[in-house]
Amino acid sequence: MFDRLHAGTVSSRLLPGTRSSEVDVAPQPVPEASIRLHDLDMLQVKPQRATRVRRISEPALLDARFIRTAVETAEMQGILADHERLVDCVRHDRAAEAESLVRRHLSRVIDLLGSVRT
Questions:
Q1: Rounded to an integer, what distance in angstroms lies between the CA atom of residue 58 and that of residue 65?
Q2: pLDDT of res. 25
């Protein structure tokens, strides 16, 4: 239950204000899932009333933007460190090697950002 609700919230399939009754779960989702999502500040639980997806606060959004910028900047520094190798690949028509270098860095960014979200 936690994984399903967490994935729906993170992917924006469950928008802020969405009630648990709208996502095919009981009005009070499995207690462990509710507690974990509440602890992550992703779920608002009002006993005997409703369980809803919480709106993202401005400070949380700014924190996420800061983290994303820091991760992307660090990885761009890695790409720049490989700059000479990339230029050499382009000059000597080694497109596959250049593409591999860029994909490696992009993959790291995606992995790092994915680990920040969870």
A1: 10
A2: 59
Q: Which residue has the higher pLDDT, 115 or 106?
A: 106
* CA distances for 59 relative to 8, 16, 30, 117, angstroms: 22, 16, 29, 15
Token pair belonging to 69: 């910028």
Q: In this structure, are residues 96 and 86 in contact, taking their beta carbons and an 8 Å threshold?
A: no
For residue 54, the model assigns a pLDDT of: 82
What's the predicted TM-score (pTM) here? 0.46
CA distance 85 to 101: 9
Instruction: Identify the residue whose tokens are 């967490």.
Output: 6
- Predicted pLDDT at 118: 43
pLDDT at 28 over 70: no
How many beta carbons lie within 10 A of that of residue 92, not counting itself? 10
The DSSP call for residue 56 is: P
CA distance 80 to 84: 8
β-bridge mates for residue 45, sequence order: 51
Cα–Cα distance between 91 and 68 in angstroms, integer? 32
